[in-house]
Amino acid sequence: MPSCKSDRKAVVPQRQKKIKLGIEVFLENHLDLVKGKRVGLITNPTGVDSHLKSTIERMYSNPQINLVALYGPEHGVRGNAQAGEYVSFYMDEKYKIPVFSLYGQSIKPAAGMLKNIDEYMRSFDTENTGKIPESSIVEKVDVMIFDIQDVGTRIYTYIATMAFCMEASAENGVDVIILDRPNPINGIDMEGPLLQYPEYSSFVGLYPIPVRHGMTVGELARFFNANYFKKKANLTVIPMQGWEREMWYDDTSLPWVIPSPNMPSIHTATVYPGQVFLEGTNVSEGRGTTKPFELFGAPWIDGYDITKRLNELNLPGVKFREAWFTPIFSKYKGELCGGAQIHIKDRNRYRPFESSLHIIKTIKNMYPAFFKFHTRYMDKIMGTSEVREAIEKGIDIKDIVKSHKEDLNNFHNLRKSYLLY
Fold first, then answer.
1. Using one digit for the tens of pLDDT, what is the confidence trace for 363-419?
2. What is the largest CA-CA distance in the chain?
3. Hey, what domains does the chain have and what are their CATH numbers?
4. Which of 40, 52, 133, 387 would disulfide-bridge 69, Cβ 3.0–4.6 Å?
5. What burial letters (b/e) apply to 365-392, b meaning 16+ CB within 10 Å?
6. Cα–Cα distance measured from residue 419 to residue 223, given in angstroms and rounded to the nearest whole number
7. Are 2 and 404 in contact (CB under 8 A)?
8. Facing residues of 54 across strands?
9. How many CB atoms are closer than 10 A to CB 94?
10. CA 73/CA 45 separation, integer angstroms
11. Which residue in 290, 355, 356 sits closest to 326, CA to CA?
């Protein structure tokens, strides 16, 4: 630990393995689960098969599936909503079925989004032409299907969306089907503290799992359903075929579809379990650049000095390169920032969480007059105040990481009964 090296088998990266995704297994073998039922689909642009055909299209065009409503997480079903943007509902132009937002004001789907759809829609302002359908669309859904690519980090909001939808479905007698997808940063390595529950439970971390959890969405659904819901969902998980826990996303033959605007590549997902915590500081995490989370810095940081100091730490699997950048949005928009770019040399040795704690502590020590924690938000995304407090007390990063070992070992054992691969 913090990664379960004893579980790791060799993967030959140059020989990509063909994976059959949950959506493909479902369409081939499990249509009986939706026979005669009205289907709601939670998805976004990552909901595609191995040939990049959308899950929406594949379900809508299948005569055995009665697709009646779509539900979108942060950024929307088509990825055309900005972060935090909320839309109560709208009619999809292509499929002429209602689309509901599961981010912003709603978070947990209102009962009307599942059981009284037509009545729910008609309760809104009808002045805008086309906002309300002329005639009744559908009264309810009978089964909710989830098909979204996660990135393997607790803070990413899609797993919270899944959990809330499972809860709402259970409360309203709606079946749930999860179409499983890979954990892109492998299903073995785990890092970081377990969220302190329920004190730090939020949309960026609901339940006590590690920052880097090493599970697929299907496995998490099984875990959440068994341990944290007052009323259990009638849950079915459709596993993938061919995926192995040791695999990174590019060990598969699957195309990478951007899960959100600031997650452009597998490299971004790899550094994200650590670099996301720069959001809890006044250091830019690289949003507004072409390398979000891989670049970091601030106007008051000297890129040469910080890079030299970080490379002197000889952190495993990573090197830092001096970088200067000007974000076009987010922190320090339009200001020249000095900092560094993360270059991963060996991703199986690289520990993003530990490395980023070193980055934060190094910047804090070098620039004490400038560096600041956004305390409340930092503790929220960390799932505890203990890490920030330890850094502020000057505790060695290795000791902070060691303090998580027992919890990670316990979680490793707890999760075993929910694993599918």
1. 999 999 999 999 999 999 999 999 999 999 999 999 999 999 999 999 999 999 999
2. 68
3. 20-181+216-241 (3.40.50.12170), 266-408 (3.90.1150.140)
4. 40
5. eebeeebebeeeebbbbbbbbbbbebbe
6. 9
7. yes
8. 48
9. 9
10. 10
11. 290
Angle between helices 352-366 and 266-275 (to 10 degrees): 60
Please name the helix (run of DSSP H) or strand (run of DSSP E) that holds residue 101, with its range, or none: strand 98-101
Q: Which residue has the tokens 């699957």?
A: 254
Tokens of 154: 């607790």
- Residue 237, Cβ density class (10 Å: 0-12 exposed, 13-18 middle, ≥19 buried): buried
Residue pLDDT, tens place only, 25-56: 999 999 999 999 999 999 999 999 999 999 99
Burial of 404: CB neighbours in 10 Å, binned 0-12, 13-18, 19+ = buried
Q: How many other C-beta atoms can be found within 10 angstroms of the C-beta atom of residue 320? A: 23
Q: For residues 68 and 96, give the distance between their C-alpha atoms in angstroms, rounded to a whole number.
A: 9
